[in-house]
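Quick one:
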Amino acid sequence: MLETRAKVLLILSQDVLDRARVLAGKATTALKLPVSLQIVLRALLEEGLKRDGSPALLANIEGQAQAVRQRRGAARRAEAARSSRGPNSKRTTPGR
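Output:
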């Protein structure tokens, strides 16, 4: 199963993380084996990838992609606004 490995940084909402932890606890109880959060997340990814044509999966992917696009756009606009002020612009907050 783990012939080739890659490290991935995964940022999740607290709600999703809590639900995955609950699932790990339920799996531990049902299987009478220790089930880590990593095992649960790996299994969810593998099972989700098997449903690549699912409308619900595609809708979830679209929503997350749109959210990332909006955040990146907002960050670019904020950076552009900061850089357009120039190095000699007066700050309203002291000492930064």
